[in-house]
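Researcher: Here's the sequence for the chain we discussed earlier.
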Amino acid sequence: MQTAISTLLSVFPEVEIWQVGGGDLLLVASLAPIEHDFDRLRAKVEREPFRRALLDTWRVDGLEGFYTGYIGGSKLARHLVEISDRRVSTDDRPLIEFHFVRNLGRLGSFDLSELQSMSRALGAHRPAETTKALEPQAASRLGVDWQKVASLRHLRAATGTFSLDSSPEPDVAAEEAARRLARE
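Model: Thanks. This is the structure I predict for it:
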C-alpha cells in the first residue's frame, strides 16, 4: 500500500484514502486540494442514483453514511510514505504489480484498524470542509454529524462492509464544550 501511495504522491500532491468495502481501499489523487463542500455533497448523496448506491453497497445513507468510508487525507498519505521505504513504482520497475502477484491470497498484509488509528492520531481522519456557496447565507451550515458517522461505521462493520479500529470516536460535543471553556 505504501508503494502505491508513494507512487501517487510522486505525481499528485493530494491523496485521500477511503475504505470501500471489506479490506478494499480507494486512493483518490489530485493535483489540487480535494474539496469537501458538505452542503453540495449532502444534496448529491440524498438524490438518485447516489442514495440507492450507498444503500446497496454500504447499507448506509446520507452524508454521514458517505463519510463512513473516509480513512484519511494527504497528511496520512505523506506520513505513510515517511515511515516506509519510499519506493515508487514505474513502468520499468513495476513494484506494485510484482508485490500484488507475490502477495496474492495472503491475508493481513496491512491492518486497516491500525491505519484508522494512525489517521486519528495525526488528526487526518476527517476532511476539512471547503464551501463553494456563492453567498455565505446560502450554505446550510449543517456540517457533518461525526458521532453519526461513527455509529454508521459500526453498522457497516456488522454487515461486513467495513473494518473498525478499537479506538472510540471522540465525543465531538464534549470536545467543543472543552474548547469553549478554555477560551473563557
